[in-house]
Amino acid sequence: MHVIKLMWRRRDSQVGVLMLSVICLAVMIGPIVIPQDPYEVRLEERLKPLSLTHPLGTDQVGRDFLARVLLGGRLSLLGAIGAVACSAFLGTAIGLVCGTMRGSVDLVLMRIIDVLLAFPSLLMALFVVAILGTGLTKAVIAVGIARLTIFARTVRAVALGVRESVFVEAAMACGASPIQIMFRHILPNTLPQLFSVTSLSIGASLLHIASLGFLGLGTQPPTPEWGLIISRARLYTFQAPQLLIFPGILCAMTVLSFVILGDSLEEIFDPKRRGIHK
Known about the structure:
Layout lengths: L1 H7 L2 H23 L31 H37 L1 H15 L3 H12 L3 H11 L1 H16 L2 H8 L4 H37 L11 H8 L8 H28 L1 H6 L2
């Protein structure tokens, strides 16, 4: 509750929450409320302009574009959240083990993380997709694997500091096992950093999933997804610019809202940064 109060006092947090709330409500409820079928093809109505029947017009095969953009947003957002859940679980586990066990375990695992960090996360996602194949589920797994390094290094850094604390040394002296130390003492102290990293990672994962969709390696037609929609819409930039503009704006606003929230959380949980902005 204290964190929520601090966030609500910040103007940037209010803007981020408002933007994200509107977008989430639209993509989650919109496809249910809108009567048009996002998959219904009507070639006689292809590339229609904005109207009351079709508020964002129709696409290249006559499907209602608003329905497709909202459904695509739902899939993109859920895919990004799924990717971050995957990377957070794996990265946190690796970071806890490395920060708690140290020794050869830490050395081997962190060298693997360093190798993954040598490649841009999108390039790593492309590599994993090349192995797993195309599809939204496989794209989510690929992005989750590509983004786990940030969680692993963040959790390890916090774990190394907490491990030297007096209360951890006291727990070890009382016979606490490494598993108990991980989950009772170290993990709770990593949660503030994990919250901010998670928010930032959802925005980055959304961009990665959209990028894979744009390249044809993510969601496959006729299923809509923002990256795939933008990829198809670029062929009709001058005939129907709304097909390119609206999903691009929504994608950018969603990423921006997560970045704003992540930056706000980082400043709230980091006393040094909070002091600078007072």
